[in-house]
Predict the structure.
Amino acid sequence: MSDNLQLAPHLVLTWHDWVALFGHYLMMSIMSVGGAISTTSEMHRFLVDQHHWLTEEQFSQSLALAQAAPGPNVLFVALMGWHVGMNAGSTTAALCGVLITMVGVLTPSTIITYTAARWAHDNRELRPVRAFKQGMAPIVIALLTSTAWIMGSSAGQGGNWRLWLLAVACGLIIWRTRLHLLWLLAAGALLGAFGQV
Amino acid sequence: MTSSNPLDRPRPTSLGDLFISFTILALQGFGGVLAVVQRELVERKRWLTQEEFVEDWAVAQIMPGPNVINLSLMIGGRWFGFPGAMAALGGLLLVPLGIVLLLVLVHGRFAADPHVAGALRGMAAVCAGLIGAVGLKLSVALRKHPLPLWWCIAIALFGFILIALLKCPLPYVLFGLGGLSCVLTYRRLNP
């Protein structure tokens, strides 16, 4: 991180700025239909272009790290909050940034989803509700296979057929057996660490 | 949201059970936790059927917010109401949040290490395989679909072409193709 720090701005954030940051993430939450990742370009505009609270590098590093780490990808939001706080000068501010951005990005969508899901469950016999839930099933499958395809092709860039082979072999094992996923992840990590894939 | 299941199916025993289960599955998700949810909760723990999983997912997908977060809220809420939703959400986020913050602190030291980069590449490939396999398995659930199987396959295939090959923005696919699919399903369902 030391190389980033030289480039990073030294911010003085007022109460007003923190409130603006919180408000922005509240809005992002409501707009994030299809996942938080679909609002990244808007976050980039706000944090990097408009306010200069984050460097280009910190922004893309937040996305990449959250992708590489275990857990939901939405944690990239926490990393952005972390960097904003660090740029303001302290670990306390960084933790404050994490809290503000995560609470902001989760609260509205949580309330909306929980309420809607509850309503849909209570009215699950209604024809429109059944039509919606079952009608979306083919789309869900299209999304999954697309994600696998996109992940596989970005991993297999540069003609790395061994990575493809590993992905297909794991797919088959998972399809046919109930082996715990952690074994496969460990095997993938070992193969990668020793340069086999 | 009390469960409507007449059958005596496996279910989470407590809020702590929910929290720990979601923590464990979150830690297995590199580049996407949704497929792990299917693997752990549908196949191994059998808390949900394939059909319930697909239906909940449809709601989670269309609502604002991260999909897997929405799904955890719905699954947690199924048995324990709002506290259950919060337990599942907390399990999904707290430990991974700690890990990701640790990673950002040490990032400079290990980012250049080829072993670490290789290990991450290997794990990402395993996850791509997992997601593909889950897609295949869920296709089996289409057999019980009100639409004829061939229609379902055609819609799914068209969706795949739009998203994976043509890189169409997701909301268009969800509302356009998804809307069409819902209307077709509506017409086939008995009132």
In short: The mean pLDDT of chain B is 86. Chain B is about 75% helix and 0% strand. The longest helix of chain B spans residues 67-110. Chain B touches chain A through 111 residues (CB under 8 Å).
